[in-house]
Amino acid sequence: MYLGIDLGTSAVKTVLVDDAGAVVAQASAPLTIQSPRPGWNEQDPDAWWRAMGACCAALVDAPGYASVRAIGLSGQMHGAVCLGADHRPLRPAILWNDGRAHAECAAMARELPEIGYLAGVPPMPGFTAPKLRWLAAHEPRVYADIRHVLPPKDYLRLRLTGTLATDMADAAGTMWLDQGRRVWSAPLCAVSSTREEWLPALHEGTDAAGALTGEAASALGLPPGIPVAAGGGDAAAGAVGIGAVADGDAFLSLGTSAQLFLVTRDYRPRPETLVHAYAHCVPDTWFQMAAMLNGASALGWWSRASGVSIETLLAEVETRPANVPLFLPYLSGERTPHDDPHIRGTFSGLSGATDRAAMTQAVLDGIAYTFRDAQAALGEAGSAVEAPAVIGGGARSPRLLQTIADAMGTPLRRYADAASGPALGAARLAMVAAGDGTLAERATAPDVNREFAPDPAETARHADRHARFQRLYRALAPLAREDAQ
Predict the structure, then answer these.
(1) Residue 168 maps to which CATH number?
(2) What is the spatial distance between Cα 112 and Cα 116, in angstroms, rounded to a whole number?
(3) Which of 154, 167, 207, 234 is catalytic?
(4) Distance, CA of 237 to CA of 13 (rounded, Å)
(5) Maximum CA pair distance of the chain?
(6) What are the backbone angles phi and psi of residue 13, rounded to the nearest 5°?
(7) Is the pTM of this model over 0.85?
(8) 97-149: pLDDT as tens digits
(9) pLDDT single digits (tens) 232-248
(10) How many domains is the chain partitioned into structurally?
(11) With contact defined as beta carbons under 8 Å apart, do 2 and 72 qualify?
(12) Could you list the residue range(s) of the whole structural domain that residue 214 is in?
């Protein structure tokens, strides 16, 4: 048996995988985000540990749990977990969707013009490195006590193994990694007020990067000494979970955030397109990715705001409603293609005839249009994505997937158990780290349980609405910047 652990933004998810690679049990525990100021998003790292413990407690009676041979980790990328000399957090972790460091990003771009080619993407507030420069300027007492900085999932590794380590893909998302050489970059550290000695050891995701301590083993009901794989940032681990490890493999991920992901055999930076070019969590492999800050979370927000379950909302739009407004889903700003931490969500075109079903369809359209934008950005970066697979919690909604297929004008393939992609990928990396198979043997594609073919008439209709969607963003972006001042 193998245990895969995925530290998401809204929940920790765990899967127990047997020797054949099948998921035999899974559990999840919710997390909350704290927003002390507009545009700020933080979490308590110890809440992650407690949630992981709750997941393992839910699995402890599952057949085979006590015989787990290896553990793999996946997690939300770009967060800053700042630790003191005692390895304890100095403050809440600053998350991937935090927008406070926009001024620092502008300064980094001015001071290091080649930064986008080193780091794979221009500086954006969500990345880890600008957060450290922000801390140096705005929280000098915290900054003075920093001795280590970790991506979120690697704080769990520290608690599990006592080891300060990360994988190449999570390192890629910090803006401290020289992507082409797969080593920490002295210029990237210097421009972000970061000391290289603060950074963890680098590993390929298939490496063992620590072993379970006696204390952690007792807490989780497992034997000590179990190897813990380096694992992967959630996007890359999700790729391993669906077998996207070879050149040209592609998928879109629909979690709290969203990504359109393409595996490449080499490093292909095109920072002017705002497409990320990153090291994969598997050896000698990279990827290009359009990263959107608002995925299926926009539908979750609409459910909370309307006071109606997502299931009920989706049932109300079985047939397309009339009078559908436009919806910008930028509840947390946006990365690709705008690099705009200030823009926020908006309904436009409401009338007295607009009902809840029409507004739900507008939310689905808005999510779909971000993928159409992502598709165009990858095209500008010289890459085409055809018939991508789909993973993530949002993949459960056929209505949403059909809307995305229609908007993009490309077929989508939903894999069986698509929602457990990153945790399953983490378990697969654990298998390889334990010596129980090669990457080629373990990172296979699951069965396709449904395909979503685009309707040409709908694609044409969405093209017109998408053009208006883009004009709406351009009209509102200046107002959003004024509101943020």
Answers:
(1) 3.30.420.40
(2) 9
(3) 234
(4) 13
(5) 64
(6) -125, 140
(7) yes
(8) 999 999 999 999 999 999 999 999 999 999 999 999 999 999 999 999 999 99
(9) 999 999 999 989 999 99
(10) 1
(11) yes
(12) 2-242
